[in-house]
Design a protein that fits this description.
Elements: E1 7-15, E2 18-27, E3 32-34, H1 46-57, E4 60-70, E5 78-80, H2 82-98, H3 107-115, E6 121-123, H4 130-181, H5 183-198, H6 206-219, H7 223-241, H8 248-270, H9 273-293
Parallel strand pairs: 3-4
Antiparallel strand pairs: 1-2, 2-4, 5-6
Helix pairs in contact: 1-4, 4-7, 4-9, 5-6, 7-8, 8-9
């Protein structure tokens, strides 16, 4: 069983008069990384959030959204930073004069814009207490579990595709056999033909010819490559069936590198147009498998 690195999980809850929403989105990533900034209210809990999610989700680029919203009509005292608002006002006017753009045409809109500027208005009641943090922790765990379920569902289709790619490579290996059976005779005929053209048929040393034949046949023998390629493919299947999914994606990538090495050697030693065509198709399947393996957890 393998898991995809892409997934989505969401959990919602209410604590006192606050609505809390946790959303997690995961994409491919070599390591574990939180790619967005957390809610400023949760800055003090950032290490705890990171540790909790990394323990459950292992790796990937994670987009974390934690929204804490006041519910109902209860009012909260606010503080207006008048000095900062005046600073923004003066800067806007200065820019307007420099660019010859009138700034007094809509004073209401200008004031509304200034009030939305960072840190001009802040709530005195903002903050997350310990009980609210406990709720957020539970919601994080729930969202992470749902994201893992999503990853598992996507991983099933991902695994099926990877199995098919490796099977196609194995089928290509089987197609090599008919071409391989005639390779020795082709090599012999080609060497003999060249010798007859260069030195003459009556001057060919049969003993030397047999020695050269043995040399070229051993040099171009592909039985070891075929055996190793089959072994790597079997190991790839074994990895896909493992229950422990941690690091499986990286291991699959390493095995695919070994598969690619054997396919390349097979092609370089083939010395046959028919086998070369099969090797090209095997390389195509290998590249598709590599692309898919990048999304495996």
């Amino acid at each position: 069983m393998i898991y995809s690195m892409t997934g989505y999980g969401k959990a919602e809850g209410i604590m006192n008069d606050k609505q809390i929403t946790v959303e997690l989105k995961s994409l491919n990533g070599k390591q574990f990384e939180i790619v967005n900034r957390l809610n400023p209210l949760l800055k003090r809990y950032e290490p705890d959030i990171r540790n909790l999610l990394q323990q459950k989700l292992i790796r990937g680029s994670l987009d974390v959204s934690i929204i804490v919203k006041q519910e109902g009509g209860s009012s909260r005292p606010v503080t207006v930073n008048a000095d900062l608002a005046k600073y923004y006002y003066n800067i806007i006017h200065q820019i307007g004069r420099d660019l010859n753009i009138p700034t007094e045409r809509d004073p209401v809109q200008l004031l509304s814009t200034i009030m939305r500027m960072p840190e001009v208005v802040s709530s005195d009641a903002e903050g997350v207490d310990e009980k609210e943090w406990e709720v957020i922790t539970q919601l994080l765990e729930t969202a992470a579990s749902r994201l893992s379920e999503h990853r598992q569902a996507e991983g099933k289709g991902l695994g099926e595709d990877l199995v098919q790619r490796i099977r196609n490579i194995e089928e290509g290996l089987e197609k090599v056999l008919p071409f391989e059976q005639g390779r020795t005779e082709k090599i012999r005929n080609r060497i003999l033909q060249n010798l007859e053209e260069w030195v003459g048929k009556d001057k060919v040393d049969e003993n030397r010819l047999e020695q050269e034949m043995v040399y070229y046949i051993e040099k171009n023998d592909i039985s070891e490559e075929k055996q190793r390629l089959s072994s790597h493919c079997r190991y790839f299947y074994d990895l896909l069936q493992q229950d422990n999914t941690e690091g499986i994606g990286k291991k699959l990538g390493f095995v695919l590198q070994e598969i690619g090495r054997e396919i390349n050697t097979l092609g370089s030693k083939a010395n046959d147009a028919g086998i070369q065509k099969i090797v090209v198709n095997m390389k195509d399947e290998l590249e598709k498998a590599k692309e898919q393996s990048l999304n495996v957890l």
